């Protein structure tokens, strides 16, 4: 574009300048709505959370500056420290199980065969249920008094291990299909010729899987892992609705502690400080993952 | 999964934005008197929806001003109030669980109504415990809205079947345990009937149903300032021990340990429970053909008490229609509303001078419940909700150790309760 305009000197110069400024204006017009949304819904709240975390922030009335008290007291909260350990444990379990299950499902429905569309839809369908609704659904299903699975006499959320187990089943049911879909797009992108070449070279199924499928799937797996780990570290709905953090605070996630500090203890400054810490950790973790997995 | 994290920030952002354009506290409202009828907004929690709805309907049918009631799920009520307060979007009027009121008044959420209350001719007979919790630094902020007392309900049909005297309920906690045991042993074989029940994974349920036994025995659960917990001492420990032995012997129904609260009152009306503590507000909604006895909650060896729960109601500090809001509030405690709306539906009246009215005298159980208002207590603590109601709070852990786990940990766990109260 610039080459063409410079090639035509004279009165075209003027028109080109006008065109450029028009294009600049159009670009601005296109970008503004997004910029406004990003500023009002992302940057402004982010700055505000930062400011809140440095203040004692009452529900009504003026905040008073008290930094770094909100940060200093984080380490004194045993509930939060426990929740960090629990959230890490949950994240590790979910990431491994969810990846394995999603990969298995994706490989099952990878090839175009009669009826495969039905199974793809069936596996993905739980993902269409709102997560809060899914948590409530499981609460009802596994309830010992009214649920259809209650008669088994298993206390689905009665002990710490069972509560974690039931939650993991819920999350796998809800998210396996979605992760399968992500992996499926990666699998479809691998050229058929590569498989054919491997087969004519006499590679076994296992060799094809480990030497071709997995390496070529790497960027897709990276995407799935980042989504899964970030989502698990921010886990809230399943524990808030399904287990209510119980029994005996055994399933309290980090975000639940933030929620409790803000809305039950009205300690908005303390909750903001926890949010900032969690944000920093997440950004660092994502950067690390991108670096390792790319 | 991530939706709620930014909502803290979003609510706060909204608060700042609105504060910037709103210009702070509205002055005494000239608008309401100057221009015709107004509609005031009101929030209440689902637990006391029936009572609030009846009051609002009766008021709306006779007044030009209208009240628009919004009902919010009980478990979400506290966070919703917090978020709305942060965003300066509280309704004109909001009811609140009476035990949360000291916290709300200390946060400045309610408008000072001292002068308005002082003009009420029946001020002295307004439910005393509700008024005490609505007083902060010598100023009044709330009126009693609904009264919900904990009492023992017993199922007369089951008592008859089990060979117990259906007209004689328990007079001590020991009798309570004996009668529950008899029901269990005689009728509980097929697993459809249990001796008793309680919400074993629900902090608010323990408070509401166990503490009256402590008060009836002359004990206390906290110091009057609500800063020092006494739940690691007798008689609380004896009350814990009684319920512990009931659970261990399988008399409480299998799911008592897991009951988180939403369904704890649901089993009695189905005829599955012999005798248990219940909220008095549920008496009006029990099956018509069910014969139910009502007794005051007693201590291990006698005495009588109750937890005077329910809701208080006040005008929000940010309301633009305080006069219209007060007009409704003052009407809700009038003779007309208390007798023709509350008492008519077997609800406990909010005024001691109306305890014996034309409706209550028809049902001796209601007279008895009304009489308990003078004997019962409402505990006062600024940090009540986060200490006792919050599922992650320290009290639930303590109570569960005492009833299902290792009672020797109670003394140590009581330190966490103290810490939470003193925060």
Q: What would a concise description of this structure say?
A:
The complex is a heterodimer of chains A (294) and B (423). With 294 residues, chain A is mostly helical. Chain A has helices at 2-7, 12-52, 69-72, 78-108, 116-124, 131-141, 160-188, 192-200, 205-233, 237-243, 254-263, 268-293; strands at 55-56, 64-65.
SSE map:
The complex is a heterodimer of chains A (294) and B (423).
Chain A: H1 2-7, H2 12-52, E1 55-56, E2 64-65, H3 69-72, H4 78-108, H5 116-124, H6 131-141, H7 160-188, H8 192-200, H9 205-233, H10 237-243, H11 254-263, H12 268-293
Antiparallel strand pairs in A: 1-2
Chain B: H1 5-22, H2 31-34, E1 39-45, H3 49-62, E2 66-72, H4 77-86, E3 93-97, H5 101-106, H6 114-118, H7 128-133, E4 135-136, E5 139-140, E6 143-155, H8 156-161, H9 173-187, H10 203-216, H11 236-248, E7 275-279, E8 292-295, E9 297-299, E10 302-305, E11 308-315, H12 322-332, H13 335-342, H14 364-372, H15 384-389, H16 394-404, H17 410-422
Task: Record keyword descriptors for this entry.
heterodimer; A: 294 residues; two-stranded antiparallel sheet; flat; B: 423 residues; alpha+beta; D-Maltodextrin-Binding Protein, domain 2; 2 domains; 7-stranded mixed sheet; two-stranded antiparallel ribbon
Report on the architecture of this protein.
The complex is a heterodimer of chains A (294) and B (423). Chain A has 294 residues and is an all-alpha fold. Chain A contains twelve helices and two strands. In chain A, helix 11 (254-263) runs antiparallel to helix 12. The two termini of chain A are 34 Å apart. With 423 residues, chain B is an alpha+beta fold. Chain B has two domains: 8-148 and 308-374, D-Maltodextrin-Binding Protein, domain 2; 150-307 and 393-421, D-Maltodextrin-Binding Protein, domain 2. Chain B contains 17 helices and eleven strands. Chain B has helices at 5-22, 31-34, 49-62, 77-86, 101-106, 114-118, 128-133, 156-161, 173-187, 203-216, 236-248, 322-332, 335-342, 364-372, 384-389, 394-404, 410-422, and strands spanning 39-45, 66-72, 93-97, 135-136, 139-140, 143-155, 275-279, 292-295, 297-299, 302-305, 308-315. In chain B, the strands form three sheets. In chain B, strands 1, 2, 3, 6, 7, 8 and 11 form a seven-stranded mixed beta sheet that branches. In chain B, strands 4-5 form a two-stranded antiparallel sheet. In chain B, strands 9-10 form a two-stranded antiparallel ribbon. Chain B is globular. The two termini of chain B are 30 Å apart. Mean pLDDT of chain B is 89; it is low at 1-34. At the A-B interface, helix 2, helix 11 and helix 12 of A face helix 1 and helix 4 of B. Chain B: This is Sugar ABC transporter substrate-binding protein. Chain B: Keywords: Signal. Chain B: It comes from Sphaerisporangium flaviroseum. Chain B: InterPro entries: Bact_solute-bd_prot1 (IPR050490), SBP (IPR006059).
């Amino acid at each position: 574009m610039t080459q063409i305009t410079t090639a035509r000197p004279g009165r075209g110069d003027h028109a080109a300048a006008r065109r450029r400024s028009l294009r600049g204006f159009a670009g601005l017009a296109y970008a503004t709505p997004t910029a406004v949304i990003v500023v009002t819904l992302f940057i402004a709240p982010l700055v505000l959370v930062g400011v809140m975390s440095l203040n004692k922030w009452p529900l009504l009335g003026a905040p008073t500056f008290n930094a770094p008290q909100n940060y200093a007291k984080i380490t004194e909260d045993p509930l939060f420290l426990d929740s960090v350990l629990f959230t890490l444990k949950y994240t590790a379990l979910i990431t491994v199980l969810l990846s394995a299950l999603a990969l298995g499902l994706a490989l099952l429905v990878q090839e175009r065969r009669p009826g495969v569309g039905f199974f793809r839809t069936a596996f993905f369908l739980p993902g269409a249920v709102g997560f809060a609704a899914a948590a409530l659904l499981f609460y009802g299903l596994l309830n010992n008094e009214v649920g259809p699975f209650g008669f088994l006499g298993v206390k689905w959320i009665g002990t710490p291990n069972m509560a974690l187990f039931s939650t993991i089943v819920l999350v796998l049911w809800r998210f396996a299909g979605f992760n399968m879909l992500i992996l499926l797009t990666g699998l479809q992108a691998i050229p058929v010729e590569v498989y054919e070449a491997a087969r004519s070279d006499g590679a076994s199924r296992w060799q094809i899987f480990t030497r071709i499928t997995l390496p070529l799937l790497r960027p897709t797996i990276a995407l799935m892992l980042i989504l899964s780990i970030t989502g698990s570290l921010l886990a809230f709905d399943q524990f808030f609705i399904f287990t209510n953090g119980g029994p005996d605070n055994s399933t309290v996630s980090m975000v639940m502690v933030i929620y409790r500090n803000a809305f039950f203890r009205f300690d908005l400054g303390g909750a903001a400080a926890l949010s900032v810490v969690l944000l920093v950790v997440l950004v660092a973790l994502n950067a690390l993952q991108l670096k390792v997995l790319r | 999964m991530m939706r709620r994290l930014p909502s803290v920030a979003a609510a706060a952002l909204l608060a700042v934005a609105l504060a910037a354009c709103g210009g702070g506290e509205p002055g005494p409202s000239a608008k309401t008197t100057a221009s015709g009828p107004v509609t005031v907004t009101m929030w209440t929690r689902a637990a006391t929806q029936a009572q609030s709805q009846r009051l609002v309907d009766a008021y709306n049918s006779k007044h030009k001003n209208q009240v628009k009631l919004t009902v919010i799920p009980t478990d979400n009520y506290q966070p919703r109030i917090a978020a709305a307060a942060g965003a300066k979007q509280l309704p004109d009027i909001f009811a609140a669980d009476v035990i949360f009121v000291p916290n709300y008044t200390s946060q400045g959420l309610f408008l000072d109504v001292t002068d308005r209350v002082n003009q009420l001719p029946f001020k002295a007979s307004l439910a005393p415990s509700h008024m005490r919790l609505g007083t902060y630094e010598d100023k009044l902020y709330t009126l009693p809205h609904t009264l919900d007392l904990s009492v023992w309900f017993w199922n007369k049909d089951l008592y008859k079947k089990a060979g117990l005297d259906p007209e004689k309920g328990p007079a001590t906690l020991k009798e309570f345990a004996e009668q529950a045991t008899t029901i269990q042993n005689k009728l509980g074989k097929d697993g459809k009937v249990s001796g008793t029940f309680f919400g074993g994974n629900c902090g608010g349920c323990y408070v509401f149903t166990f503490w009256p036994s402590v008060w009836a025995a002359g004990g206390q659960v906290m110091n009057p300032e609500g800063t020092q917990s006494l739940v690691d001492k007798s008689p609380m420990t004896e009350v814990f021990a009684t319920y512990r032995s009931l659970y261990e012997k399988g008399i409480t129904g299998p799911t008592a340990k897991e009951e988180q609260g939403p369904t704890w009152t649901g089993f009695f009306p189905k005829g599955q429970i012999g005798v248990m503590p219940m909220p008095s507000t549920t008496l009006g909604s029990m099956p018509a053909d069910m014969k139910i006895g009502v007794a005051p909650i007693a201590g291990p060896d006698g005495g009588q008490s109750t937890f005077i729960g329910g809701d208080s109601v006040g005008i929000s500090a940010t309301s633009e229609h305080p006069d219209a809001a007060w007009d409704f509030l003052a009407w809700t405690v009038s003779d007309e509303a208390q007798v023709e709306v509350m008492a008519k539906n077997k609800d406990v009246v909010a005024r001691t001078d109306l305890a014996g009215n034309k409706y209550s005298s028809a049902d001796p159980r209601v007279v008895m419940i009304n009489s308990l208002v003078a004997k019962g207590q409402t505990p006062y603590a600024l940090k009540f909700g986060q200490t006792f109601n919050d599922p992650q709070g320290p009290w639930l852990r303590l109570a569960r150790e005492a009833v299902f786990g290792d009672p020797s940990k109670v003394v140590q766990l009581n330190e966490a309760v103290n810490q939470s109260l003193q925060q």
